[in-house]
Write a structure and sequence with these properties.
Elements (H helix, E strand, L loop, with lengths): L4 E6 L4 E8 L7 E2 L4 H5 L19 E4 L4 E4 L2 E2 H7 L2 H10 L5 H13 L5 H6 L9 H11 L13 H27 L12 H10 L10 H13 L7 H11 L4 H12 L7 H12 L5 H9 L20 H14 L7 H15 L1 H5 L6 H11 L7 H21 L29
Antiparallel strand pairs: 1-2, 2-3, 4-5, 5-6
Helix pairs in contact: 3-9, 3-18, 4-7, 6-7, 6-11, 7-8, 7-18, 8-9, 9-14, 9-17, 9-18, 10-11, 10-18, 11-18, 12-17, 14-17
The structure holds acetyl coenzyme *A (ACO).
Length: about 425
Amino acid sequence: MGNDTVTVTNNATGKSAEFPLLKGTHGPDVADISTLYQKLGIFTYDPGFKSTGSCKSAITFIDGEEGILLYRGYPIEQLAEQSSYPEVCYLLYYGELPNKKQYADFDKIMNHHSMVNESLRTFYQGFHHNAHPMAIMVGVVGALSAFYHDSLEIGDLRHQEISAHRLIAKMPTIAAACYKHSVGQPMVYPNNKMGYAANFLNMMFSVPADDYEVNPVHARALDLLFTLHADHEQNASTSTVRLAGSSEANPFAAVSAGIGALWGPAHGGANEAVIRMLEEIGDAKNIDKFIARAKDKNDTFRLMGFGHRVYKNYDPRARIIAKMAKEMLGTTSGTDPLLEISLKLEEIALKDEYFIGRKLYPNVDFYSGIIYKAMGIPTNMFTVLFSIARTIGWITQWHEMINDPQRSIGRPRQLYTGAAKRDYVPINARG
Ligand code: ACO
């Protein structure tokens, strides 16, 4: 074989084998070790997938060292500045930016699917009023599969597309209804005259008894936040969607599994955890105490919103969001004390050897919660908003996975460390 291979030698047996080195458009080469077990009789061990590429993908690229994020090749900074979330949805799913007609058609389709089946509304009544909205999301999104038996043929391209449209269009309606249930207000129907983000804010905050006007600054900020959260290659929730979907489960079930994975504080739940942490810090004078706790190996406390598995330079989304947080907080009355604490915390952490040495920088969620809070979004809805935004990423990745000719059910192996083979002992003979 040529140079584009890696050789693996098992020193225990003296056996060697060569494996192809695959080259992507950007990023490090990838050793194709799919025949490792067949050739050398060994598995690889990589808990947390720190060195493992789980698939080929043409959707999103991240360079964690350089702080680069591209959707279909377009830098996130350009999309944040010049595009909009619906256009980004089109770009991610179809691979190219739409022309005017394609965009108008897409917009029409999204509007067509924005309502949910009336019977779905009754599902909410089964949840206690103080249920976490992410718990409701997992259930309700999974339950969508019960409504669309006509389009769940996962190998059918048109069915795939309709399911994608339904998911993207219905997520804001489903999410806003979670909030309305928690505050005991009637669910608000979508208004197709409004843009995607404005419509969501209207469904969250308007009530039948009064007038409500969506703040355009908030709608623009939300659209931007949705854009920044739209996709992030093979993160925990996306990998969950791919793995669940690889068993040929329907896309609603797969996305519901992804929502469950997103909920955790090490992933999408971090935006909620950041606000709770800032509230716990309470005053800038307490920051040193919390920094010391974050550095203490005997304390499980971590600085929420700091660190990222991939970004070891700076999260480019955090840079865009930080700017917006400062601009937006200027439009609300007074300065938010949490913003002040967060700015101080960021300043102190970025000078601290512990954080510098470990390349721990603020991530996208360090600021997103502060912006959501300024819009009046309750803390327990933050991760729900993340799930609305990430739905396009999940369904696009599912779509790519399901149409991949190399697709097979995701089935990792393990290093077994349990008891060695032994014989069953009848209960009366046990000591
Ligand atoms: N505060 C304090 N120390 C930290 C933090 C933190 N937020 N994050 C990592 N570290 C330390 C670890 O203790 C470890 O130290 P050690 O080498 O002395 O043992 C080192 O930095 C490396 O940490 P790992 O956990 O190995 O890094 P990993 O890549 O597995 O974790 C993660 C990344 C989960 C994001 C982590 O940084 C974290 O828990 N951050 C806080 C939660 C958070 O903000 N999550 C949102 C991620 S962004 C998103 O999902 C949209």
